[in-house]
Amino acid sequence: MTRVPGRRLRSVVQRLHRRYGDQHWWPGDGGFEIMVGAVLTQNTAWVNVERALANLRREAHLAPERIAVCHPRRLARLIKPSGYFNVKAKRLRNFCRWYMEQGGTAALRRRSTEDLRHGLLSVNGIGPETADDILLYAFERPVFVIDAYTRRVLSRLGMIRGDEPYDELRLGLEHALGPDVPLFNEFHALLVRHGKDVCRPKPRCDACCLRRGCGRIGLRTED
DNA sequence: ACCCAGGGTCATA
DNA sequence: TATGACCATGGG
Predict the structure, then answer these.
(1) Distance in angstroms, CA of A87 to C1' of B1?
(2) Which whole number is the average pLDDT over A201-210?
(3) I need a surface site. Which of A37, A100, A158, A162 has the fewest CB within 10 A?
(4) Entry pTM
């Protein structure tokens, strides 16, 4: 099991927050819109998701009962800007049908986090990261979201290897930080922000994200 | 022209 | 268990 010192993790959060400030995640409003956004943003830039969400809102389709019965063609046309529109149309419909079968938000809110997570993962098109986005940002459960930025930033800081299985990392970070919804919310948003800023897949300069890049912005964990 | 983005599924070994 | 192909738009 991956062990990460909570002390160092909190230090990273502090420095990221000093650099970037409050991220105010999740952007947009309403629990259901967050869930739709979580599916649409799979491997997709958020700006394109906003266009898709705007289309859905304009056609009064940003509601589970509308999406659940929407013809895949039309749904695909509405969400086209977010890419992978054919697969995502099916995924959205799968999710909305499950969502309504379960009795909607009120019924889902009464469930335990573990039960909810298991249910979300049973939907074809909802993987671990999307499920955890929904759990943390829509249901405000203390679940740490692991994504490519988390792996990249923390591995370049030497705190993890980076190729650990999803749940191993998630449980490791949850254990290190303790159940803390506002902290998990802000930390994940800051990791994404930092990744977009300087921690690129292919570093532009020498050890950009570790020795130089992160050093410049006070993120170096050595010294 | 190239890289990349707030992943997941499915077939294959 | 672990790779690889595939899905597709749009910004820098």
Answers:
(1) 28
(2) 58
(3) A158
(4) 0.94
